């Protein structure tokens, strides 16, 4: 009986270990000169969602590269992390996604769009403000996202409590307004200055003829996109 129990326990441990290894396997996909390495630590991660994430990467990443930084990474890593309790984090060509978040919000595939823009940005130790970095990434999601409506994701209407320093969607809407009001190309210029570390507050005056605060005042008075 003891031997049988030992054998069964050994078989169970082997199955668990094999299942864990399978969950950790990395799938490498190559297309149009790009390589995506996709690793999931979650054996229950939805294969349909994985497929959508991969498709989103290969649709959006080349567009962002062409628009903002042709020298961006040609090899990217996606990791579905069961221990990460945020939404996603990006660094050194690797995006870590929360398995828990995607279980709650499986329709939010454009998290991919936002995060891979951080790879394209590649600002390093930028002298620019963090609110602008995140605002640009959400502006790009607004412009290039493949299914923002499916995630219920939109740019928020302006409120009196808002500031351009609020980052993310609030800053993104301000940037979209600038692009639509005689400042086409401003996001690209800001992005470039952050990447080559030439950004200063004076860039707003130089490129638009108005200070950042004056631009926000004009936006606040007539915020329609």
Overview of the molecule:
By secondary structure, this protein is of the alpha/beta class. It is built from nine helices and five strands. It has a five-stranded mixed sheet with strand order 1-2-3-5-4. Strand 2 (34-40), helix 2 (47-68) and strand 3 (75-81) form a beta-alpha-beta unit. Helix 2 runs parallel beside helix 4 and helix 4 (111-121) packs across helix 5. It is globular and about 55 Å long. The protein starts with a helix and ends with a helix. The relative contact order is 0.10. Residues 4-22 have low confidence and may be disordered.
Properties at a glance:
alpha/beta, 225 residues, 5-stranded mixed sheet, 9 helices, single chain
Which SSEs are present, and which pair or pack?
Blueprint: H1 2-24, E1 26-31, E2 34-40, H2 47-68, E3 75-81, E4 88-91, E5 94-98, H3 99-104, H4 111-121, H5 130-144, H6 168-180, H7 186-195, H8 202-208, H9 212-221
Parallel strand pairs: 2-3, 3-5
Antiparallel strand pairs: 1-2, 4-5
Helix pairs in contact: 2-4, 4-5, 5-6
């Amino acid at each position: 009986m003891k031997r049988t129990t030992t054998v069964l326990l050994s078989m169970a441990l082997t199955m668990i270990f094999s299942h864990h290894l399978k969950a950790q396997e990395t799938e490498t996909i190559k297309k149009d000169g790009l390589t995506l390495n996709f690793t999931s630590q979650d054996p229950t991660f939805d294969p349909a969602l994985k497929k959508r994430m991969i498709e989103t990467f290969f649709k959006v990443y080349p567009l962002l590269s062409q628009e903002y930084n042709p020298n961006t990474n040609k090899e990217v890593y996606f990791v579905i992390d069961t221990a990460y309790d945020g939404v996603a984090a990006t660094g050194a060509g690797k995006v870590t996604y929360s398995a828990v978040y995607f279980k709650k919000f499986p329709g939010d595939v454009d998290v991919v769009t936002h995060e891979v823009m951080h790879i394209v940005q590649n600002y390093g130790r930028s002298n620019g403000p963090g609110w602008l970095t995140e605002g640009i990434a959400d502006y790009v999601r607004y412009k290039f996202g493949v299914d923002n409506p499916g995630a219920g994701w939109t740019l928020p209407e302006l409120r009196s409590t808002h500031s351009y320093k609020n980052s993310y969607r609030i800053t993104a809407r301000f940037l979209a307004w600038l692009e639509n009001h005689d400042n086409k190309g401003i996001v690209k210029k800001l992005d470039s200055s952050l990447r080559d570390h030439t950004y200063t507050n004076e860039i707003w005056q130089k490129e638009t003829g108005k200070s950042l605060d004056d631009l926000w005042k004009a936006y606040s008075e007539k915020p329609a996109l």
